[in-house]
Amino acid sequence: MKILILGAGQVGGTLAENLANEANDITLIDSDGARLRELQDRLDIRTVQGKASYPTALRQAGAEDADMVIAVTNSDETNMVACQVAKLLYKTPTTICRVRANAYLAKSELFYQRDKTKDLDSLRGFPIDVLISPEHLVTKHITRLIENPGALQVLEFSRGLTRLVAIRAAKGGPLVGHELSYLRTHMPKIDTRVAAIFRKGRAIMPEGNTVIEDGDEVFFIAAADHIKSVMSELQPLIKPYKRIFICGGGNIGQRLANTLENRYQVKLLERDHERCVMLSEHLRKTVVLEGNAANKDILLEENIENTDVFCAVTNDDEANIMASLLAKRLGARKVLTLINNPDYVDLIQGGDIDVAISPQQTTIGSLLTHVRRGDVVNVHSLRRGAAEAIEAIAHGDHRSSKVVGKRLDEINLPEGTTIGAIVRRNEVLIAHDHLRIQPDDHVILFLVDKTRIRDVEKLFQVGLAFF
Length: 467
Hints:
Blueprint: E1 2-6, H1 10-20, E2 25-30, H2 33-42, E3 46-49, H3 55-60, E4 68-71, H4 76-90, E5 94-98, H5 102-105, E6 130-132, H6 134-147, E7 151-157, E8 162-168, H7 181-186, E9 192-199, E10 202-204, E11 217-223, H8 227-234, E12 243-247, H9 251-260, E13 265-270, H10 273-282, E14 287-290, H11 296-301, E15 309-312, H12 317-329, E16 334-338, H13 342-348, E17 355-357, H14 359-369, E18 376-382, E19 387-393, E20 417-424, E21 427-430, E22 442-447, H15 453-459
Parallel strand pairs: 1-2, 1-4, 2-3, 4-5, 5-6, 12-13, 12-15, 13-14, 15-16, 16-17
Antiparallel strand pairs: 7-8, 8-11, 9-10, 9-11, 18-19, 19-22, 20-21, 20-22
Protein name: Trk system potassium uptake protein TrkA
Domain RCK C-terminal: 152-236, 377-462
InterPro entries: K_uptake_TrkA (IPR006036), NAD(P)-bd_dom_sf (IPR036291), RCK_C (IPR006037), RCK_C_sf (IPR036721), RCK_N (IPR003148), Trk_Ktr_HKT_K-transport (IPR050721)
């Protein structure tokens, strides 16, 4: 695909790296020449220096024959205008736009939904095919972690019917120290599949005789209502969370408090006085506090030692890290920390900080969903981009498709790829060798090595015999 990426920040740069490694024709537009040179030295991409919304910059980048424009600059306004210019002047087939401000997102009439039956000139609003809101995605990610105590990552497929969960195995879990086959005898009524195990950073493809060890990072897939039962096999049962402390009252902090306040006891700490006043007016049950989370006395005064989850979600990585370390030292049970700099994530996760959350990786997965070939409806980036989970729809018949009509053990999967589950007419079928894939099945796959994604896409592309 020929793809224009507008904005060379953390998201734009990471996305360019992901897509360039998959043999796409990538052009990156940004006004920062030094940043562009840095990326061009590392990646096989073209770059154009200029303002991303200017027609001249888009034309220079090749917008006339681009398949897709992905606007992820730091300015919502630049992103929206750039998509409009690309669609109206250059008839770009697909425009994807990152919009952060809730003031825009709350007004759906500003954006039209793609409708191929309508003439483009008759439409009103910004011509954006796909809206991406990082704040919304991060809020959903954190909410799922709070709803599933002990999880490192919780990913949804097929409208939430099935989930892929990452969890760190710990002593006291019934399965730890046993072979995977023990799970079936111990929980005969619950069907699950371990998709991958990472041990000391190295991927292990699970077999029935694979022994789960203390400290393993285990990815398993199961129907949504079986998740907690499987988690209890891998680590001692963790009591549901009740008390949530949010540090930072920005867009993410406000969204998170609004999402959680009806089910949990929520406190939110914000240092800006005017922002505190606004938050106290808009949040119904959340206790809004004014102050600095790096102040030990404030945390002690608010009984941080009784807090189940401390979420640091300010825009400052260093502030988030220091506040999280302090909260953990003072007795918070679990600490979730928002980290924008990807270089920090591997350094801090797993020590005093339980889970480091990268907005870039959360956003990248959502963007990749719309870039994949074949009918791919969900993509999740895992382990800081090294692995990937995708949901693809099988089309065609036994003559035109490489998967339809075949048993799972007959499919020639790329090395390091496993099928975790199939969703068929709202029924979750955990993957077993005897299952046959039928037309319109949603197939959920886990790739330990994401460089094999092209091979997976080819499996789900329909041959000419179908037409």
